[in-house]
Design brief:
The complex is a heterodimer of chains A (367) and B (198). Chain A has 367 residues and is of the alpha+beta class. Chain A is built from 9 helices and 12 strands. In chain A, a hairpin with a 2-residue loop joins strand 10 and strand 11 (263-273). The termini of chain A are far apart. Chain B has helices spanning 2-13, 27-34, 46-55, 91-107, 120-124, 132-145, 148-162, 167-178, 182-192, and strands spanning 36-41, 72-77, 80-86, 115-118. In chain B, helix 4 packs across helix 6 (132-145) and helix 8 (167-178) crosses helix 9. Classes of the chains: A alpha+beta (367), B alpha+beta (198).
Chain lengths: 367, 198
């Protein structure tokens, strides 16, 4: 072996070199500033300087400690029209179909489990920044689309961009419209969550997004966040996260978001490595598990055994379908929920054509 | 009294409440029927109202403090009325301000004098010191833009289809449908006692 090759190998050995493939791009971590809305306590389970991967025990979860109901939302949408506001600003109109579904696991007669769909709702939304237009025109436009038999399209007005943005920026107007459609989807998820409060439920994403405000009186609610944009960890925490092997978790920490619609939303969180294997980037393959702080403390007596048992249940429920792009961070019941929702959507091109026809546009051309 | 006034307007103008129809109340039709014009002016204050009226050829004397920021302003010259709202406000607030001024025009025409200037605090904040006319105009706007029959019908749909009526979800969806702010809708739902806290 040549000396050059040995130098290369030594370098990679010394610095834990691993092959990584084309994993999905993750959001950039938010930069901490003085106005950060999250209060973090990383000493809940261990002192900060003693953080290390925790091997999850094999003990099975007890009834009430694991979810039996699974909620997922979906949104497909694109800008299909663009209008110019009275002051010349380009205002894209995003046509979306949004939906939410709740599946419940039920025991079959043969000792297995099956999923039953007990909530589903799909709607069509046209979202855009409406503030630049006269109210009387938006009023008539919204009423006409909502009562159009072929479209049944709800108009959802997006917030106008912050003053620091240039209102001639098409992209900022588009992102506002998309965010509004996303919010409509979240509202449907929230509606699904309002049902069957007596059943332990798992939601796809952070709890504060779907719940809005804490509700500790209900049965367990678990949030499973696949993407991370908040910087909750200290340096040792990050090293611990990147050292996790499948079946391991970080210590529990407490995060209290102050800027939620309910005012404050304290949550017990930990990262859980679901999948490993070749070519996974270090920021891929783990989820952030969330449980309401009030439930963790009162319902589960701050028991880290409960954290282990729930984590074990989640690992057992991980998605194992190789062909699914987000398999390393997905849970099988959520994938099934998504699979049961997507076929209910109308192809966007069909909806867009109906809208064009109503608008007097032909083949997407000009008026 | 206010509910009766609105019911009378609806009958006279042929704009009944129909909970089966989706979307916002056609506020502009009430303005058309009453022959009250409405204008949105950026950075609304008395000074800008005067500038606007002078530019239109009206003869006006200066009003109150010309620089005080306003949410709405109502002015009558003979039988012709003009309602002004702040163009910088978000659309739901502009509609609420317009409905509030319409309320003054319908309820207080004889008592209000030549004009009525409404600060943002008057329109958008719940203030115990608010005078009777302002309170009535706010109630008029709330009852006109958020009809009780529509609110209760949507809540009943939730109960019927989903077995629950979560307040936050109902508030969000009704505010979107009726083109009002979520704050205004939350207040209306609270007053009507509609929606489950959980």
């Amino acid at each position: 072996m040549s000396a050059d090759r040995e130098v290369v190998r030594k370098f990679f050995r010394q610095y834990s070199g691993t092959a990584v493939g084309a994993t999905p791009i993750q959001p950039t971590l938010q930069v901490e500033d003085d106005e950060s809305n999250d209060a973090i306590d990383r000493t809940v389970e261990r002192p900060e300087d003693e953080w290390a991967p925790i091997i999850i025990r094999e003990a099975p979860a007890k009834p009430g400690e694991y979810p039996e109901r699974f909620i997922d939302g979906s949104q497909t949408g694109e800008p299909v029209l663009c209008v110019r506001a009275p002051r010349g600003w380009p205002i894209p109109m995003v046509l979306s179909e949004i939906g939410a579904v709740a599946l419940r696991s039920v025991a079959t007669g043969r000792g297995g489990l099956a999923f039953e769909r007990e909530f589903v709702k799909v709607e069509r939304v046209l979202s855009f920044v409406g503030d630049p237009f006269p109210w009387e025109e938006v009023e008539g436009f919204a009423a006409a689309l909502a009562n159009h038999a072929e479209l049944v399209l709800r108009v959802a007005l997006a917030n106008r961009p912050l003053e620091k943005h240039n209102p001639f920026d098409y992209e900022i107007m588009r992102s506002q419209a998309r965010a509004r459609a996303q919010q409509e989807m979240t509202t449907l998820e929230r509606l699904a969550l309002s049902q069957h409060r007596e059943v332990a439920t798992l939601v796809d994403g952070p709890l504060s997004r779907v719940m809005g405000s804490p509700d500790t009186a209900r049965a367990l609610v678990v949030g499973a966040a696949k993407t991370q944009s908040s910087n909750h960890l200290h340096e040792k925490g990050w090293r611990t996260l990147f050292d996790l092997k499948p079946g391991q978790r970080t210590p529990v920490y407490r995060c209290e978001s102050k800027g939620t619609e309910g005012g404050s939303f304290p949550v017990a969180m930990w990262f859980l490595k679901l999948a490993g294997g070749p070519q996974l980037a270090p920021n891929w393959g783990h989820i952030r598990v969330e449980v309401q702080w009030g439930q963790f403390v009162k319902k589960f007596a701050s028991d880290f055994g409960f954290v282990d048992r729930l984590s074990r249940w989640l690992i057992d429920a991980r998605c194992r379908t190789d062909s699914y792009a987000r398999m390393p961070v997905s849970l099988d019941p959520i994938v099934r929920a998504e699979d049961s929702l997507k076929p209910l959507f109308t192809p966007l091109a069909v909806l867009a054509n109906r809208l064009y026809r109503t608008a007097g546009l032909f083949r997407g051309g000009e008026l | 009294m206010i509910a009766d006034s609105i019911a009378r307007l609806r009958t006279d103008f042929g704009i009944p409440v129909d909970a089966g129809v989706r979307g916002p109340v056609p506020l502009h039709r009430f303005f058309d029927e009453i022959a009250l014009s409405h204008v949105a002016i950026p950075g609304l204050n008395c000074g800008r109202v005067v500038e606007h009226l002078l530019a239109e050829g009206s003869k006006v004397e200066p009003f109150d403090d010309p620089a005080e920021p306003l949410a709405g302003f109502l002015y009558f010259a003979g039988n012709f009325g003009h309602a002004f709202v702040d163009a910088d406000d978000i659309l739901p607030r502009r509609r609420f301000s317009a409905a509030h001024e319409l309320g003054h025009a319908v309820l207080h025409r004889e008592r209000m004098g030549r004009y009525r200037a409404d600060s943002k605090k008057t329109l958008f904040e719940d203030d115990d010191s608010m005078d009777e006319l302002e309170r009535e105009a706010n109630q008029f706007a709330a009852e006109l833009l958020m009809p009780e029959a529509v609110v209760r019908a949507r809540a009943a749909e939730f109960e019927s289809f989903h077995g629950c009526c979560p307040l936050g979800v109902l508030n969000y969806r009704l505010a979107a449908e009726l083109l009002v702010s979520r704050e205004a809708m939350r207040y209306r739902l609270k007053n009507l006692g509609v929606g489950d806290e959980r």
